[in-house]
Amino acid sequence: MLNTDDRFLRLKAVIEKTGCPKASIYRMIKEGTFPKQERIGRRAVGWRASQIARWMEAPSSYREA
């Protein structure tokens, strides 16, 4: 059974959930301080809800592994 926290969020949902603008999200990904998106289709990417939740718990101390 799939955990509901492992569902994928699209960019619009990530922006709404985090309150971060698109440019800031991509800048933080580049810096390694925000979860990287995953390819979920040929032309689609998404973020795991569990990773976004982990980032939201402690954004200043998050580091991409």
TrEMBL record:
Note one Pfam family from the annotation: Phage_AlpA
Q: Which domain of life is it from?
A: Bacteria
Q: Which region is the signal sequence?
A: none
The chain's coiled-coil residues are: none
Q: Which InterPro entries match?
A: AlpA, DNA-bd_dom_put_sf, Prophage_regulatory_activator
What SUPFAM superfamilies does this protein map onto? Putative DNA-binding domain
Xref: PANTHER family: DNA-BINDING TRANSCRIPTIONAL ACTIVATOR ALPA (PTHR36154:SF1)
Name of protein: Transcriptional regulator
Q: Which organism's genome codes for this protein? A: Sphingobium yanoikuyae (Sphingomonas yanoikuyae)
